[in-house]
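Dissemination and training. As part of the outreach component of the grant, students in the summer workshop were shown how a complex can be specified as a set of sequence lines and then modelled as a single object. The example used during the hands-on session is reproduced here so that future cohorts can follow it. Participants entered these lines:
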Amino acid sequence: MALKIVESCVNCWACVDVCPSDAITQGSAHFQIVTSKCTECDGDYAEQQCASICPVEGAILLADGMPANPPGSLTGIPPERLAEAMNEIQAR
Amino acid sequence: MELSVLEHGKAGSSSAGGCSSSSCGSTDDQLSHLPDSIRAKVQNHPCYSEEAHHYFARMHVAVAPACNIQCHYCNRKYDCANESRPGVVSEVLTPDQAVKKVKAVAATIPQMTVLGIAGPGDPLANPQRTFETFRQLTEQAPDIKLCVSTNGLALPDCVEELAKHNIDHVTITINCVDPKIGAKIYPWIYWNNKRIRGVKAAEILIRQQQKGLEMLVERGILVKVNSVMIPGVNDEHLKEVSRIVKEKGAFLHNVMPLIAEAEHGTFYGVMGQRSPDPEELQDLQDSCAGDMNMMRHCRQCRADAVGMLGEDRGDEFTLEKIEQMDIDYEAAMVKRAAVQASIMEELDEKAAQKARLANVSVPSLTEGRISRNYRSVQMAVATNGGGLINEHFGHAREFLIYEASPEGVRFIGHRKVDQFCVGNDSCGEKESALSGSIRALKGCEAVLCSKIGFEPWSDLEAAGIHPNGEHAMEPIEEAVMAVYQEMIAAGRLNGEKALFQANA
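and obtained this result:
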């Protein structure tokens, strides 16, 4: 079982520095978690470290495929409000 | 909108009684009372001395992408070429690349005295990358001052290391000392291997910031405190912050306006939190000035900015371009030392001249009677450095704002020329650069520049701002005082009529 980084990753390196298993590498477009190395921090920490420091909602998926940090959970911006703001900007 | 004038504080902010401090105001005041050891540290640092910022340049290298906290005014999707604000960069560098870039810039811009690491994340949340860069620079470019800017969370753990690298300037961003206010600014921190939220997170952050500040002061490291003014969130509170950090020995307080646009994707931007107007910012800076040296010339630069404050020459030093430069740093150091020494000489001469002029300002005009009845006047100045009025009105990307009063001339801030539309057809809002400039100059009664065209001349006059190209190439503060005296002589400052006209 392993976590996964997806394309919304902004390459900020925060997760690389805190991974206890050295499981995160620089991919071509964004950082990646080496599945065979990821332990989900089991035995090291109560909480998965990459998911605890990642600043981007949705960029890290848990082993079950669900986002570790769902929309709104890190920025505090309600997803509806964000969508509305993006629409307003598009319309300009 | 009422003009912010020393004698006429804005309604509703009774404490905005103007500059009540001995340490506030002009460049002389800021530097002249300092002990020599501290003066030596700040006199060529553009961010620590208002005067130095007319002559010396700085650069940031973006080696620190990771961050350990989230601020509501920041968005970590920081890769943007067109945005100019902290936290934004075009490319993140490795320490080796950063060192190469620093040497290329230092050789090309000899007046560049300071290298700072300021992000785009938090430098101390990237200790290996940050300190490796400092280590190499201490060795290879010993003539450059090293400087760091941090949110403070990891600061207490890094103070020893900072001291080891001879860093004598550290900036801490402190937006609050009250965790309840902090919870409205910081949604979370990463601390002891956990993401912590709310008041508890703010409590930890504030504790670390204050502890870090105390530890730095103990070691004689100069601390600048940056605070972001967020109307309705921490604006009143920042007066307390200023008092406390001053008590603890911070050297300088820099209250900056919140930058919040929906397109930046920040919490404040998307949620419609407003930024302060220039008048509100100035009132707050003036109220804090009773306790503290205030920095008013900050341009809130990017984490990869290069050049004089207010300019960004980053494009000249992309990785691709520095790869092709062949730098002889030994030779560069010789040239740098000569250029910087001649600037210092010029500054010393200027200081001596100012001391001579100090006794012949407004009082001479009124023949010994120091009339304090004349109100103060704000004027805008177009300059491209050197402390002179030497920029064409139409070329100015920003204006420096000075206030002239019977007490003298003081620098109070800068205004960017917002060019909402620069001729792009897809842009709905058609606004010329000229009307952008005029709006940026709201509250000013004159604009001093080296030259100005006919069209802007009449538009400015119509807006109540007197264009003045008669002091081209003159030192700014003397020219502002001369124009103030002309206004008094012309009877324009008798009574309040002119004031209201200017704001109509």
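The mean pLDDT of chain A is 94. Students were then asked to discuss how this feature might be tested experimentally.
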